[in-house]
Amino acid sequence: MQYQLKINGETRTVDAEPGTPLLWVLRDELQLTGTKFGCGVAYCGACTVHVDGYPTRSCQTFVEDAVDTDITTIEGATDKIAQAVQEAWREKDVVQCGWCQSGQIMSAIGLLTENPNPTDDEIRDYMNGNACRCVTYVRINEAVKLASQKLEA
């Protein structure tokens, strides 16, 4: 079946069976491989994209449910907040294996969009649904705080 999806500001037509997770459409059909597969049950957060501006687990979002929405993947995360988060990630040397990073970054962008100056507890609570195999949670929290400071400047 054909679906039209608005992804990273561009309307794309994709062929997929109903019930196909958005994750597989992004990765396999559109070659947007920045969004990662982790657990497949929306627990780890590696597949996080934004749907209508909100962090959403693409492994549990069906393609038909994504029609008439605005989808942003890590490849399309280029606004001021995204740039501040990505810069802070580099400065704090967050990445180790990289498996969780696109999902972590997309969640951090969502947090700072909703709350530009979060406390440590608010950061931990919001980012809680994103697992990191390398356990770089301290650096992730520091990077979110740094990104917040960059946005205030």
TrEMBL record:
Coiled coil: none annotated. Keywords: 2Fe-2S, Iron, Iron-sulfur, Metal-binding, Oxidoreductase. GO terms for molecular function: 2 iron, 2 sulfur cluster binding; metal ion binding; oxidoreductase activity. InterPro entries: 2Fe-2S-bd, 2Fe-2S-bd_dom_sf, 2Fe-2S_ferredoxin-like_sf, 2Fe-2S_ferredoxin-type, 2Fe2S_fd_BS, Beta-grasp_dom_sf, Diverse_Oxidoreductases. PANTHER family: BLR6218 PROTEIN (PTHR44379:SF2), OXIDOREDUCTASE WITH IRON-SULFUR SUBUNIT (PTHR44379). This is Isoquinoline 1-oxidoreductase. Residues 1-77 form the 2Fe-2S ferredoxin-type domain. It comes from the Bacteria.
